[in-house]
Design brief:
The structure is a single chain. This protein is an alpha+beta fold. The strands form 14 sheets. The chain has a six-stranded mixed sheet with strand order 4-6-22-21-16-19, with no helix packed on it. Helix 6 runs antiparallel to helix 8. Its main location: membrane.
C-alpha cells in the first residue's frame, strides 16, 4: 500500500512538473491577445507586430498580427513590416575614477571620483533588460569626518576621562590614513520624562546620589562641530560632566537620529562620514516612549535648539528601520563602541544596519583609537550597492566582479569585500521593466555605495508605443466611415465599435442574421466550431501552440491536421494548408515523404542501388535477396565478410588484435551483442534477414565465433561469443612423472647392461685363465737359494700319544 502511495505521489509530481514546463513554453505574444501594436510590444521582448495591411488571412483576428519574430517571418510578413523596437542606453556623465596618491596635490572632496559612470539614461522595453557596468575604486587620502557620540550616564564616568585626551591622539593616528580629517563631539543620556529620569526638582539639578556632582539630565546635546583642531576637541570634552538616569537602556537612538539629520549643525561634508556611538548599556526604540506617555512616532527631522534636542518629550524613539533609512540617506557609517557585556546585543543591531561595525570598549584611550581605526578599515574594505525605490514593474539585478576573479550574483552581487585602497571592482547592473507604468513619464532612480556620497543617477524612459503609432490616422475612412484609428496596418476601434474594420456596434455582435453568414453550407456549426462569429464574420480561435492556426471564411481550414510521416507534419518537407500538404521541391506524396532526389540511392560505383535494386522515393529496394543496405551494397553472406570484420570484432570483444589501438575510431560502424555460448548465436532460420556465421583464429591459436548480419533497420549487427575457444594445454604432472620415471628406468637399464657386460667379460677372462693354467708345464726342481719359512721343533717329551 505504501508503495502504491509513493507511485501515486511521484506520478502527480511528474504531471505537475510537465504542466509547469508546458506553461513556461506558452507563447506570451499570443497569450497577450494584443489588439494594437503598443499592447503587443509590451507583452514581451520577443514579440513583434506585423503592420502589413494584407498580412491577415481570411478568418484570422487582428491579434494574430502579434507573434514572435520568427513566427511572423515564417507566416510571410516582410522583415521591414515588423515593428520590433529595442531599448537603448546613453551615458551623460562619465568622469574617470580618480587615480590619486597620498601626498599629491590636495583636491576638494567634490573633485574626487570613486564611482563611474555618474549619470546615464536607459530606454526600457518590456521584458528586455538593459545592462551597464559600474566601476568603483577606493581613492587614497580620501577625507574623513568622525563624530564621537558618547553616553554620559553615570556608569560612563571612567570612559569620559579617557575621551578627554582622545582628540589629539586620534588626529595623529588618522593622519596616517588621510591628510584631511575632522572630528566632532556630542553626548546623550535619556528622555527628560518619567520613568526614564527622576523629575523631582532636586534630581533634575543633580540626578546622582551622594556627594557626586552631576549635570542635569538631557536627551542629546551637540557639543563640538566637526573640526580639524584636536586640542579644541580635548578642551571642550574636558568640560563635560556626567549625568544620570533611572533605567538601564539609554536614549541613544534619539541622538543618532539628530546626528544623522542635522547635518548643517554637525558640519558634515560630502566625504566619508563616521559616527562612533559609545555606551555601556542597551537602547530604547520605537514603542518604548509609551511608558512616558509619548505616542507620536519620530518624525525624522532636526529639532536642535542651542545645540540641544528639544522634542524628546514629544516624539517617540525612532525605530531601527527608520534609523537605517536616515543613516543611509545621509551616507553615515556607524561604529558601536560598547562594553563586552552588550556585545551580543549590538552585534545583532549591526546585522540590521548596513555598513556598521562593533568594537569592545575598555578603560584605555589607546584602545578606543585602535577600535576606531580597525572599524574604519573593516567598513571601508567593503562596498555595498543600494538603489532608491524602483518604479512599479521595474526590477534590478546585480553581478559583482571582485578581487581575485570572484563573481557573485543575486544579493551577493551587490557587494565586494577585502577591497584595499586603489583596488578597482566592477558591477554589472541590469534593469528590466515588465509592462509600462500607469503614467508614462521618465522616472529617476539612484544607485550608490553605502557610506559614500557619490551616486549614479539613472533616468528611465519606457517604450510603450510603436513607431508607426505616430503615423496613425484618427477617424480613418479605412475603419468603416471613421469608427477607429488606422495605425500600424490595422484599425484601433473607438469605444463601442468592434470588427476588423470597426464595422459593427458592440451591441449588435451576436444576432441570428449575423450568425447565418458564419455557417458553412447552411449547416448548424458556427465557424466550424473553431471560431466566433463577430459582425457576421468568423474570427478563428487561437491555439496554445503558436505555430498552429485555424483559417478560412468559416474557420474550416487549419495547418496542423495534415498527414504525418516520421511523426512530423508533412514529413518535415512541406507545409500544411487547409489540411493538405503542399510539398517542398523534390518531394511528393500525401505526407511529402517521397523524395524525388536519387542521390541517396547512388552507390559507390556510381550506379543506382548498385545495379541490384530500384530507387523508390529516395530509398533503394534491393531486388537481389543477397544484397542489403541503403544502396544494396552490403552482402552479409558473401565470401570474405568474416575476414573483413575479424580485426574489428576481435578488438571490440576482446581488446586484442591489430586494430586494438584504433578500435574506437575504425570499428564503430556496427552494433555488437555478446552471447555466452555458440548455441546462443542467431541461426539463419531464426532471423528474418541473412546471417553469416564466422569462425576466426587469433595470434594465440584461439578460436572465436561470431555472426554478421544487416537487420531490417539496415543496421550492421554482430553477435559474438564472449569466451575464446583455446586448445587445451598438456597435463604437466604425468609428463613430469613420466620424464622422471624414464630417467630412472634408463639409468637402471644402463646399469644392468653394464653389469651384464662386466659379468661376460669376467667370465671370458676366467675361462682364458683356466685354459692357460691347464696348458702350463711347471718345473719340479728345488730352488737352491730357497729357504723354507717354516721351522720344525720336536718336543723331547713328546711321546706321540
Amino acid at each position: 500500500f505504501q508503495m502504491e502511495l509513493k507511485l501515486i505521489f511521484m506520478s502527480t509530481l511528474l504531471a505537475v512538473c510537465c504542466y509547469c514546463d508546458a506553461q513556461s513554453e506558452v507563447n506570451e505574444c499570443i497569450v497577450a491577445n494584443a489588439r494594437h501594436c503598443g499592447e503587443c510590444i509590451q507583452a514581451g521582448a520577443k514579440c513583434g507586430w506585423c503592420k502589413d495591411p494584407d498580412f491577415l488571412k481570411q478568418g484570422e483576428t487582428v491579434t494574430t498580427r502579434c507573434d514572435e519574430l520568427q513566427s511572423l517571418l515564417k507566416r510571410g510578413c516582410d522583415e521591414a513590416m515588423i515593428e520590433d523596437p529595442h531599448g537603448e542606453q546613453v551615458v551623460h556623465r562619465n568622469k574617470t575614477v580618480t587615480n590619486r596618491r597620498k601626498g599629491a596635490e590636495k583636491l576638494n572632496p567634490e573633485d574626487i571620483t570613486q564611482i563611474q559612470p555618474q549619470k546615464l539614461s536607459l530606454t526600457l522595453r518590456s521584458g528586455e533588460p538593459q545592462s551597464f557596468d559600474l566601476k568603483f575604486k577606493r581613492a587614497e587620502d580620501y577625507p574623513i569626518d568622525l563624530y564621537y557620540l558618547m553616553d554620559l550616564s553615570y556608569s560612563m564616568k571612567d570612559d569620559l576621562e579617557n575621551v578627554k585626551n582622545l582628540g589629539t591622539s586620534l588626529m595623529l593616528e588618522m593622519s596616517k590614513i588621510t591628510s584631511d580629517f575632522k572630528i566632532g563631539f556630542g553626548s546623550f543620556v535619556e528622555k527628560t520624562v518619567m520613568p526614564y529620569i527622576s523629575t523631582t526638582p532636586a534630581k533634575l539639578l543633580n540626578p546622582c546620589t551622594g556627594d557626586q556632582n552631576c549635570t542635569s539630565p538631557f536627551s542629546y546635546k551637540h557639543v563640538l562641530n566637526l573640526t580639524s583642531d584636536g586640542n579644541q576637541f580635548n578642551t571642550l570634552v574636558g568640560q563635560q560632566h556626567i549625568s544620570g538616569n533611572l533605567d538601564s537602556p539609554e536614549g541613544g537612538f534619539d541622538a543618532i537620529m539628530q546626528v544623522a539629520v542635522c547635518g548643517h549643525h554637525i558640519g558634515w561634508r560630502n566625504v566619508t562620514r563616521l559616527l562612533v556611538f559609545s555606551t555601556d548599556a542597551g537602547f530604547h526604540f520605537a514603542g518604548d516612549g509609551k511608558l512616558g506617555g509619548i505616542v507620536l512616532p519620530n518624525d525624522g527631522k532636526c529639532h536642535l535648539e542651542n545645540n540641544v534636542y528639544t522634542m524628546s518629550h514629544y516624539y517617540d524613539y525612532p525605530s531601527i528601520a527608520h534609523l537605517v533609512q536616515k543613516l543611509s540617506d545621509n551616507n553615515i557609517q556607524t561604529i558601536f563602541a560598547v562594553t563586552e557585556e552588550f556585545q551580543p546585543v549590538y552585534q545583532e543591531l549591526k546585522n540590521l544596519i548596513p555598513k556598521s561595525a562593533v568594537g569592545t570598549l575598555s578603560a584605555n584611550s589607546s584602545n578606543v583609537i585602535n577600535l576606531i581605526i580597525d572599524a574604519y578599515n573593516s567598513l571601508s574594505s567593503e562596498v555595498i550597492l543600494e538603489n532608491s525605490k524602483l518604479p512599479e514593474g521595474v526590477t534590478i539585478a546585480y553581478t559583482s566582479r571582485c578581487k581575485n576573479g570572484l563573481v557573485s550574483e543575486g544579493e551577493n552581487g551587490r557587494k565586494c569585500s577585502n577591497i584595499s585602497i586603489g583596488d578597482e571592482v566592477m558591477f554589472t547592473i541590469s534593469v528590466t521593466s515588465k509592462g509600462c507604468p500607469k503614467q508614462v513619464k521618465p522616472e529617476t532612480i539612484k544607485i550608490k555605495p553605502l557610506g559614500f556620497t557619490e551616486e549614479v543617477e539613472i533616468t528611465l524612459n519606457f517604450i510603450c508605443e510603436c513607431e508607426c503609432h505616430k503615423d496613425g490616422v484618427e477617424n480613418s475612412d479605412l475603419c468603416h466611415f471613421g469608427n477607429g484609428t488606422y495605425e500600424c496596418g490595422a484599425c484601433k476601434c473607438n469605444d463601442g465599435r468592434v470588427g476588423r474594420q470597426c464595422e459593427c456596434s458592440s451591441n449588435d455582435v451576436a444576432t441570428e442574421d449575423m450568425d447565418r453568414t458564419c455557417r458553412k453550407d447552411n449547416g448548424t456549426d458556427i465557424c466550424s466550431n473553431n471560431g466566433d462569429c463577430v459582425c457576421g464574420t468568423c474570427e478563428c480561435k487561437k491555439r496554445d501552440n503558436p505555430d498552429e492556426r485555424y483559417s478560412g471564411q468559416y474557420c474550416e481550414c487549419d495547418n496542423f491536421n495534415c498527414d504525418r510521416s516520421g511523426n512530423k507534419l508533412c514529413g518535415g518537407h512541406g507545409r500544411c494548408e487547409c489540411r493538405v500538404c503542399v510539398c517542398d521541391p523534390m518531394w511528393t506524396g500525401s505526407a511529402c515523404d517521397c523524395s524525388l532526389d536519387n542521390s541517396t540511392c547512388m552507390a559507390s560505383n556510381k550506379q543506382l542501388c548498385n545495379g541490384r535494386g530500384t530507387c523508390d522515393c529516395g530509398v533503394c529496394k534491393c531486388t537481389d535477396p543477397k544484397f542489403q543496405g541503403p544502396t544494396c551494397e552490403t552482402c552479409p553472406t558473401c565470401p570474405g565478410v568474416c575476414a573483413q570484420h575479424k580485426d574489428c570484432v576481435q578488438c571490440r570483444a576482446f581488446g586484442t588484435g591489430e586494430k586494438k589501438e584504433t578500435c574506437e575510431r575504425d570499428c564503430s560502424d556496427f552494433i555488437m551483442i555478446k552471447v555466452k555460448t555458440r548455441d546462443k548465436l542467431p541461426q539463419p532460420n531464426d532471423a528474418s534477414y541473412p546471417v553469416m556465421h564466422c569462425k576466426e583464429r587469433d595470434a594465440n591459436d584461439c578460436w572465436f565465433y561470431y555472426t554478421y548480419a544487416v537487420n531490417n533497420n539496415t543496421e550492421k549487427e554482430v553477435h559474438v561469443v564472449d569466451a575464446l575457444d583455446c586448445p587445451a594445454g598438456p597435463d604437466i604432472t604425468p609428463i613430469a612423472v613420466g620424464v622422471v620415471a624414464g630417467i630412472v628406468l634408463i639409468g637402471l637399464a644402463l646399469l644392468l647392461i653394464w653389469k651384464l657386460l662386466m659379468i661376460i667379460h669376467d667370465r671370458r677372462e676366467f675361462a682364458k685363465f683356466e685354459k692357460e693354467k691347464m696348458n702350463a708345464k711347471w718345473d719340479t726342481g728345488e730352488n737352491p737359494i730357497y729357504k723354507s719359512a717354516v721351522t720344525t721343533v720336536v718336543n723331547p717329551k713328546y711321546e706321540g700319544k
